[in-house]
Write the structure tokens for this entry.
Amino acid sequence: MKVSPDKSWNPRRFDARAFAEVAGELLGEEPLASFDRLSAELHADGEVGAPVRWEARGESRPDAAGQPCVWMHLRAALDLPVGCQRCLGPVVVPLEVDRWFRFVADEPTAEAEDDHCDEDVLALEPKPDLLALIEDELLMAMPLVPMHDVCPQPLSLLAGEEHKDEAGTEVHPNPFAALARLKK
């Protein structure tokens, strides 16, 4: 982890105010195993691959009243092997986060302002866990239905499998045929 020259930052109890005041920068790589919820998304046959790469940059900007306001720019990236929803095989999904966060005094203030702001609002106290924030953002970046563009193996259509007669013409089974046999 690369840190600002003047200070060592603890990402698990992150002092966002001090970080912004010195325009701090952090670069890090964490193994995927450090993130339990992301690791739970791994495909059983998928290899762990590259670590989570991230960087954070603090900034102090004046608000509308001219008071200093704490901001942080967060970037994170990961190539995560998850299960394809079409063929059920592993598919590598690139996840990327590039977001700005504004910090306010506490949770109630963050909740009150978050609905009325374009930016994401977080609380300064209790001190946030930067790595948990990175994990949250990467989880939200996951596609709802991960799939290959083209699956590497042909798909098995067990329930709705197409049937062809001797001439090669598609024949769709009549779903009421079983009912007709019961009626006899």
Remarks:
- Residues 81 and 92 are 4 Å apart (CA to CA).
- The two ends are 75 Å apart (CA to CA).
